[in-house]
Amino acid sequence: MVFCSIRGSQHQTIMLRNIHQDSLLNAFFLSILATAGLFYVNLGGSFLSAFVDGLSIERDAAGFIVSANKYGAAFGGIHFNFN
Fold this sequence. Notes:
3 helices; 65% helix
């Protein structure tokens, strides 16, 4: 079961309760989450070039920063799922 709250336009909280794991609504929410994660990963190259070109950071250090950011996001997502 998944518990989710969504705020409406009138600042009313809409609670979605008892979303079963094999439901279409759960698949929809998971597809949005997966798409956001893929979009975030695709921005890594832009971050790297912005660090190198814009901030004049060496490529090694910029690569370490970007990879640490990606691993942190991945471990944070795993921790969120199991917590």
